[in-house]
Structures are given as C-alpha cells and as structure tokens.
Description:
The complex is a heterodimer.
Chain A: H1 6-39, H2 45-57, H3 60-71, H4 76-85, H5 93-118, H6 121-129, H7 134-145, H8 147-163, H9 166-172, H10 182-190, H11 196-224
Chain B: E1 2-9, E2 14-21, E3 25-29, H1 36-44, E4 51-56, E5 59-63, E6 68-69, E7 77-80, H2 92-96, H3 98-102, H4 112-119, H5 134-146, E8 152-156, H6 164-181, E9 185-189, H7 192-198, E10 201-206, E11 209-215, H8 216-220
Helix pairs in contact in B: 5-6
Amino acid sequence: MPTFSPAEWQAIALSLKVASVATLVSLPLGIAAAYLLARGRFPGRTLLDGFIHLPLIVPPVVTGYALLILFGRRGPIGAFLESHLGLVFSFRWTGAALAAGVMSFPLLVRPIRLALEQIDRRLEQAASTLGAPPWKVFATITLPLALPGILAGFVLAFAKALGEFGATITFVSNIPGETQTIPAAIYAYTETPGGDGGALRLALVSVALAMAALLASELLTRWSRPGRENAP
Amino acid sequence: MIAFGCTLVRRDFTFDAAFESAALITGLIGPSGSGKTTLVNLIAGLLTPSRGRIAIGGTVLTDTERGIMLPPHLRGVGLVFQDALLFPHLSVHRNLTYARDVGRVSAGSISFDAVTGVLGIGHLLDRAPHTLSGGERQRIAIGRALLASPRILLMDEPLASLDSARKFEILTLIEHMRDEFSIPILYVSHAREEVARLASVVVKLDHGRVEGVGPTSGVLD
C-alpha cells in the first residue's frame, strides 16, 4: 500500500468530487438527450447527435477553449450565470466539473439511447391502454426498462470524468486544491524534478479507479438483465 | 355496442371500414394485411384516422368531425396482443394491478379475486413474467386488461403463438370471461374456427374494407 502525501489525497478527493457532481448533474440531461435522439422526429436531430458527440472527436483543448470563451467570466454564458446565479466556473472546481461533464456526455448518452431503442414500444402502448398517462408510462415502463443502459452510461461517464485532462486544464488551469484533479496532478509531477514517485502512485490510482468503474458497469448491467427479457 | 367507421389513407394502403355490432363477442376475421391490426389500433387510439367516428356503448372515443380524439389512456379500451407483452420488470401481481396502480379504475369494477379465480392464475402471482409458459403469460395479459375495467376488450390474435392444447384452454377461459364479466369483446383472428366458436357477430375484412357483417353462421359460410 503506497502512502500518499496530503496533496495527493487532495487531488484524489477533488477528482471524486468533480466527477460525482459532473455525472450527477449530467444524468437528467443525458436521459433527456438520449430520449430525444432515440424517439424524437424533428429537423436537426442528426445535427444534435453530432453536436453531442463532438467532444469525443475534437481535440480536448478545443473543447476547453470553447468552454473558456462561453463560460469564462467575460463569456456570454459565464457572465450571465455569475450575475444572475452567482455561479462562477473559471478557475474553480465547478469549471472542472463542467469540463468533465461536457467531455463525458457522449459516453453517458450512448448506452441510454441504445437501451431506449431496444424497448418494445408496444409495452408502452399496453401501459397507455391500461390507463397510464404519458409521463406515468415513462416513469413506470420506459425508465425502468432502460435502467441497465442508464447505469452503464452513468458509470462510464463517471470513469471518463475522473480521467478528464485536456479540456479541464485548458479551461480552469491546474490549481492545487481547486482544479488539480488526479490527471492534472500527474502532469504536474512529471514536470517536477523528482516527481516520478508521485506520478506513478497517482497513475496507479487512476488505473484502479477506472478498472473499478468498468467492473461496476459490467456487474450492474448483468445484475439488471436477468428477467428483463421475455423468455421464448 | 360498437359503432365504427373510419378512413385512413396511407401511401401504400387505404383503410376504409365501417360496421356496427351489439354482440357480446364480435369476431373480426381476415387474412394478414387486411387491416385487422389497423382497426384495433384505431379503436385503442394508437392510430388517428384521416376521418371517422368510433363509439363504444354510447361513449364517443373518436370523432374527427367534432374534433374528438381521446388519448389511449382515457379510452378504457383493453388490449390483448398476440405476444402477451407483460411488463418484464414487474411481477405477475404488479402486472395485474398495473391499471389500479397508475390510474383511476372506476368503482364497482371487476375484482382482483374474481379475475384470478376465473383465469386460474392465483398460484402465479409471485412469479416473474419470464418464468411463465406461453399460455400462462396470455392468461395474465387477459387478466391485466380485465382489471382495468375496460369498456371493451380488444383481443388481437390472442392464441396465435400457442399450441393447440393451450388454445383450447384459453378459448374456454374467454367463454367463461364473457359469461362472468359481460364485457364486450372484439376478437381478432385469421382462424375461422376460433371466431366461429366465440363470436355471435362477425366482421370480415379484406384489403382494408369490410366484406361482410352479420351473424356468424351467415358470414363465415
């Protein structure tokens, strides 16, 4: 068992906080986006699909730069949120959470969308003929049946949020205790003479966290599957 | 009393059918592609006609001229599909009580014990749907629809995926049900022997049009 310095503990705790907030706040938006993409028939659907997946493809520094322009203190959205809600992103941990949320959003949406697409629509029709209004059909049939996908997406997005680096460091820099998550701390160690030990320790931590998240995702999916399909 | 008259124009298919029936069980027969399921979906409110009117027992469900189109959850139209479509994440018991759990089931409605008794499903209540046989699933699906106290029960090929022993069993149950609960049933099938046994009025559909309506013996012969 390696011993961590207080700064390393701080980075680990901050990473967990940033990733948790990022994923929990994204979850309802992710479900809504997945529902729109799986069920919506509207002009611009392909465009929305592309826009959501953009952070997966463009260089993370570009996403970070876009966040800086939009959500920085002088950015149109950033200035609005600061004056109306007192919400500041730039150089704060909240900005790290925003960057992590945006970067992990495609991974959150995809499994939920696939799960929604697999649902037999006639189950929802059956529920409506039994007297359930649309929102109750969604709450009692659609959402529970999509649960494996929702859990898988949640865990994947969480793991991705833990590891987010490029957009985060571009948007909110690398401030110990405020925006220095595990990857940023590793980066700082590699830039510091004699930092190899710390870099290795934190690298092992991120591997362990990622493995745990992937295993959890797999187990959750298996746990929620049996009995969900109609037997032949 | 079913009063049905709807037109639905699609690119490759025109549905244009009208009939009335006061029978307790009305049979709807026709080859596949004749529009049987379209008719069922129109009554259930899952499809909107280009124009038309549907009334069950004096209650107007659809009337395009007066701009009436009740949504499915307010129609009180029970639906039993070929594959039972039980909710896979709910127990048999929760499937049966779904209508009661989500909505308003009117007072003086059909009791849980009566339904489980007539359908012989009391011993299955704690099971999960995927552990049931095809015949058992279909009985639960019928019970689930009945417990919503529908104005009418639409059964769309309810026996099509069952073997002949199960078919016989469910046919007998439907007859019990008819006698016990006196809910009007529209029984959809391509199998004339099923319709001949159950229905007293038959509607014959082909190419989206009604080819004949009348007492079972007359139409089927």
